[in-house]
Structure formats: structure tokens, C-alpha cells
Amino acid sequence: MTLPNSFVTLNKNRVTFFLFLLFILSMMVSCAKTENQNGKLSTTDTQGNTVSIEKPAQRIVVLYEPLLETVYMLQKQETLVGIPSKIYTDADNHKAYALMDTRIAEKKIATPGDMESANLESLVAMNPDLVIAYQLSPNVISSLKEMGIAVYMGKSETYQDIEKEIKDLALLLDAKERGEALLSFAKKEFEMMAQAVKDVTPKSAYFSWANGRIYTTTGQTSMMHECLVFAGVKNVCTSEMDQANINPETLASWNPDVIFMWNDSPSLFYENPQLSQVNAIKNKQIYTLMPMHYFNPHTLKALLTTLYMQSWAYQMHSEDILLQKSKEYLVFLYGDKIGNALFQQFRKS
């Protein structure tokens, strides 16, 4: 008996579909097996390197201060066995971190290096399963990896970097829920600040870096520039450089409405006769972000930086409200105990 062509075609289609399903299922099973066999946590760090560990890190060395802050914000400080030497040598930093960790107050956590260098023998002696850094020599990185020690290289140059680094460290330290909560909180607060000035004509702003460098400003590719944008002001510097050097004539021609300083005295501007006609100087609109530790823009403390710059630029909040919001931020970022201790130090500074 000859079967109708339509019947044959229908059955061929069914067989083809069935085989396709089997192929998909086999691929899914294969992937699941690979995942179970490897059992690794993997990501790509913000410098483009693949990072894999067998299980959540239990012993970590952090040599890059913005990511040390992230570890505390993720509430995983118990994993720390090494920190940057700067935490002990910089008085302001040590003063703040001493409130965050009694081991730092007593200088009991080892310091095998800093942001740009580290001692390989000291690192290995700490028996870490993860080293977090900003800059290490290729030889040190390869040596650590050969010994089974994972290396995560961060940079925290943009808010996108900060978000990714929080997600990555949350994965590697088994703090995914906390990481999501931090990012959700920051997103909500930044959106509220943007909404507050959406119908306002943007003020022009100039930012000067610390240590008397009033002619060194922030370009369009820096995290401080992003804070200015989040605050709803326009950065007068259009350079793509992170830190751009200018001259008095350029600053006078930009004529900003407001000037923000990094840990310096406004008198550096007010007492400069070359700049006397700049609007921000004539109108006494110069404000200083200090102490620096609490306004570090390379962490989620960019919230505090943005809050204060926006409030100063647009005369939005009283000092009491600013302090109230500062406390809210610090308590959420660090938890009740550490956050309240930091806030008491902040308000007295």
C-alpha cells in the first residue's frame, strides 16, 4: 500500500521535530553536567580578565581601597586577611576604618602591598583564595594564578565600573542578595536626585582637586564628572582627560556658577585676584568636599558626593536635612553599627 505524500511529509516533520527536541535536551544536560563538574564561580573583571574560583572566597587580600570599601558594604569583612598599607599610613583613612573594624583599629590585619605594588611572598604567606587589586606586575599575577590563587583587577573609574565590581564581588564572596540591595538603593536615590532638578536650568560647575591644585580639574571621563552629572550641574571642562590642567584665563572664560573643591580651603579662590570676576567667586558659591574619606566618588559614597553638590548648587536642603540623609546613606551602606559610628565621626568633622 502506498501512503499519501501528505502523511509521509507529516511524519517526517514529526521525526525531525522530535530529533531536534532530543538534541536540545542533550545540550541542556551536557551544559548542566559541565556546570556541576566545574562547580566554579566565574566572571570577567573590569580590566577584562577572567576570574574563576571553586567556591565563594573565604580568605581575601584587597590592595585597592575602593574595593576594600565594597567588601565592607557587602558585609563580608570577616574574609579579609590583607589590606592596603595606605589604610594605616593615611591618618584620615585609618581614623574611619578603625570604626569599621577593630582589627584595623589595632593594626592586626596584614598589609602586603598597596594600590600599585605588592610583595609576592607576603601575599602567598596569607594563604588567600582571592587577591583583589588595581595594579600588579604580570609576573605577580601569573605566579598567584599558578598557585591556584584567583586575582580580580578593578578600576572603579566610572559608575558602570562600580556597579559591575559590586556584582562581581557579590558573586565571588557569596553576597548576591546584599549586592542587589546596594545597587537597588543607589539606583533609587540617584533617580530621586535627578527628578529633583529635572525642570531646573542647569548650573555650570568647576571642580578642583586637592592639595592646592586649583587649576587641575575633572574631565569628562572621570567618576567625579559623573557625580556632577548626577547632581544635575554642567561640568565646564570638556576635556576627555581624567585630571586636566588649565590656566587662570581658561577658568575665567568658563566663568562657572559654582565651584566644588576637594579637601581645600575656598580662600585659594577668594584671595586670587586673577579670578575675582568669576561668578562663583563673586557670589560666594564655593564649597569643599571634606573629609575626603566620606566623599570618595569611586565607591557608592558617590551618593554623598552627589547629594552635597546638588544641594549646594541649587540651595536645596538645610544642614539638618543633609545630615539626616547622610546618616541614612551611611547606615544603609555599612549597616547599623558601623554606619552610625561613621556618621557620628562625619558630623563632627
From TrEMBL:
PANTHER family named among the record's database cross-references: PERIPLASMIC BINDING PROTEIN, VITAMIN B12-BINDING PROTEIN
Source taxonomy: Bacteria, Pseudomonadati, Bacteroidota, Flavobacteriia, Flavobacteriales
Fe/B12 periplasmic-binding domain boundaries: 59-320
Cited Pfam families: Peripla_BP_2
InterPro entries in the cross-refs: ABC_Transporter_SBP (IPR050902), ABC_transptr_periplasmic_BD (IPR002491)
Protein name, as recorded: Haemin uptake system periplasmic haemin-binding protein
